[in-house]
Amino acid sequence: MSASMGAGSLPAPVNPVGPIVYTNQPETSGKAIASLICGIMSYVILPFFAAIPAIVLGHIALSDIKRSAGRLKGQGMALAGLIMGYLGVVLIPFILIIAAIAIPNLLRARMAANEASAVGALRTYERALVNYGAICPKNVFPQSVTNLGPGKGDCDGAGLIGSELASPGAMRSGYRFSYTPGPADNLGRVMSYTVTADPLTEGTTGIRHFFTDQSGVIRTSRGEPATVDSQPIQ
Q: Which of 56, 88, 122, 147 could be joined to 142 by an S-S link, Cβ 3.0–4.6 Å?
């Protein structure tokens, strides 16, 4: 009987080691965490730049977790980041459309506010220049815009406007203001003046240019500095 047992009938060798089982506490995949963070950011602040990394990291994390034999966890986070990334990519065109509509409207609103502020500043100059003649009748109008600013309430510093506007080439709300005294008469009195307001960056901080003089009429123009021949504001 033993002789009838050939070499081909011997039992197969048994693997003494067996399958490798990872028994330690599994670690959370860093790529899964990064995918989730990018997925969240794709909805909060960086839709275009965060959605693609969320998708890439999510796929890599899921592959790593599958091959780790239990060493890595975080499949749920990777899936969440992956899903949010894909949704972020789908939303990008809608976000771009909304931005294309909203940004020009915001820019126009900002320019309109700057222009209104410029007109208000010219009104402030007009009142100050009229009152300056009461403080310093020998001059009527000042030689410099600084004479309207903080001081002792005299001809050198009438205290009629704040220091922001009482400086040559003053800038406020996207506009630059320039005061120019007229020629003095035979008594040395300044009898006329001009004040202009021009956007710092035309088409961005404002569109209209403004002009006023001793007449108290504010005039405006587009594309070029306003002058005494420009149209009065409505």
A: 147
pLDDT per residue as tens digits for the range 53-110: 888 887 888 888 888 877 888 888 888 887 888 777 777 777 678 777 877 888 889 9
- Provide the total of helices (H) and of strands (E) in the chain, helices listed first: 3, 8
pTM, 2 dp: 0.61
Residue in this structure with the two tokens 């809608």, named with its chain if needed: 94
Residue 210's closest CA among 219, 223, 201, 199?
Answer: 219
Q: DSSP assignment of 201-229, as one string?
A: SBTTTBSEEEEEETT---EEEESS---TT
Neighbours of 90 (CB within 10 A): 10
Residue 191 C-beta-side C-alpha neighbours within 13 Å? 7
